[in-house]
Amino acid sequence: MSTLFADTLKKLRSEKGLSQRELSEQIYVTRTAITKWESGNRLPDVAMINRLSEVLDVDMSTLLSAAAESDECPTVIMVDDNAVVLNGSLPIIEEVIPNASVTGFTKPSEAIEYAKAKRVALAFLDIEMGTVSGLDVCRELLKINPHTNVVYLTAYREYSFDAWDTGACGFMLKPIKPEDVKKQLKKLRYHFFVGGEEQ
User: What distance in Å separates the CA atoms of residue 199 and residue 193, rounded to the nearest whole number?
Assistant: First the structure.
């Protein structure tokens, strides 16, 4: 799940000077529920969003739009300098994550610019892209949004040791297969919804 709702809720709560416990007591939920909402692991239902809007003194539409963007359409990118690999892989990602907006890039610089404009939930990165390393692209993406999940793609198993030092949460050998993508989704640090099911 995208962290847009989580970030919005944390910001509004902080502006009101409320702790998680104080907010939970005012809307009659457990502190654990607030923690889950603010970590991006769960979304409140409409009744809870209504209570939150009253307590936080914010228009309900602000919270509803943040929740909708968080849940409905996660942004997923794939960066690989081989157009054939990219074109073969994107349909597999779309098949496994049917509700996602999936975009491919052969140029890492374009992917980084795209990530500055969109909240990227998941990035599949080739490790070796000419003169550019996918490890460096990962670091750039995580500077833009620390909650981006990064999964490395490579044909070379020996890269896996270097990959773990960059903040990535997964590693896949090419060519990718639907079952491999599904396995990686279960290992993500920051969860989002995949076709109505939380991953």
Answer: 6
- Set out the domains of the chain in order of their start, with CATH numbers: 4-71 (1.10.260.40), 73-191 (3.40.50.2300)
91-104 per-position pLDDT tens digit: 999 899 887 778 89
- Helix, strand or coil for residue 193? strand
Beta carbons of 123 and 79 less than 8 angstroms apart: yes
Q: DSSP of 40-52, one letter per residue?
A: TS----HHHHHHH
d(CA 130, CA 141): 19
Tokens of 188: 């993500």
Q: Please compute the mean of the pLDDT values over residues 15-27 and round it to a whole number.
A: 94
How far is 85 from 184, CA to CA, in rounded Å? 19
CB distance 191 to 4 below 8 Å:
no
By C-alpha distance, which of 123, 134, 186, 132 is closest to 160? 134
Given this model, what pLDDT does residue 152 score? 93
Backbone phi and psi for residue 158, each to the nearest 5 degrees, phi listed first: -65, -15
**Residue of higher predicted confidence among 188 and 160:** 188
